[in-house]
Specification:
252 residues, alpha+beta, L-fuculose-1-phosphate Aldolase, eight-stranded mixed beta sheet, binds zinc ion
Length: 252
């Protein structure tokens, strides 16, 4: 289904939101988050039943609005068919810990994953990194294993704390938002920020981040709600243009 700004802003039925979450998967693929059939986003069920999680065995670029299963917070499948991703506890535990979060993403974007394998702190060197100015991007280094148990999910959620994203050392990243728009931008901006900082570090040139206070102020200037809308719509137009050229997403 092509993007429609009117649909996005006026119809918040589950099917319509899942179309948007499906598009978020395809946008994230376009922006460097793809890794075969790994990576998944979830959407908190508005009726309190649990969360809608992308089903397994699909690449991010293949996801449509029909590719979600509804699971409760204990992982029981309530609706839908298909493989339940092993890392479902990552989504469940973050949502339990963060009641304001409606969308959780987990993926293995190349630059963020490489950056996450270092001990460096992500600094506000470029505008994309300023998305994370309030809380920084913590690093979860208790294990490099995938998050397959509620215990590991709780540990990851603890490290995430109030932040918008968390680096998962030698594995990938997770990112969150109060809606699909915020979560998608967090994922995209994290990858751009990590790429920029890796480029800076490998340049050998001297570099200094702006101060923390200035970066928090800057967040308010460059990321008001209308800017989040503009950027979300921009990425939807970019996806539409790419899929029109490629004739995708391909029906299966
Ligand atoms: Zn993973």
């Amino acid at each position: 289904m092509p993007h429609s700004d009117a649909l996005y802003s006026q119809d918040d039925s589950i099917a319509t939101v899942l179309e948007q979450v499906a598009r978020a998967h395809r946008i994230l693929e376009m922006e460097g988050h793809g890794d075969m059939s790994m990576g998944h986003l979830s959407y908190r069920d508005p009726h309190g039943r649990g969360l809608w999680l992308k089903r397994g065995n699909l690449g991010l670029e293949e996801v449509t609005g029909r590719d979600f299963i509804l699971i409760d917070f204990d992982g029981r499948v309530l609706e839908g068919q298909g493989l339940r991703h092993l890392e479902w506890p990552l989504h469940a535990e973050i949502m339990l810990a963060r009641p304001e979060v409606a969308v959780v993403g987990h993926s293995h974007p190349f630059y963020s994953t490489v950056f996450g394998a270092t001990g460096a702190e992500l600094g506000p060197y470029i505008n994309h990194a300023v998305w994370f100015a309030h809380h920084g991007v913590p690093r979860f280094a208790e294990t490099s294993h995938i998050i397959t148990t509620p215990q590991l999910g709780k540990a990851l959620a603890r490290t995430l704390g109030p932040a918008e994203a968390v680096l998962m050392a030698n594995h990938g990243v997770s990112f969150v938002g109060r809606d699909v728009r915020e979560a998608t931008l967090a994922g995209i901006f994290l990858e751009k920020a990590a790429r920029a900082q890796l480029a800076l570090a490998s340049s050998g040139l001297a570099h200094h981040p702006p101060g923390a206070e200035e970066s928090v102020e800057k967040y308010d200037v460059i990321y008001p709600d209308r800017a989040k809308n503009n950027f979300w719509m921009y990425f939807n137009r970019k996806l539409d243009a790419q899929e029109a050229r490629q004739g995708g997403p391909q029906p299966r």
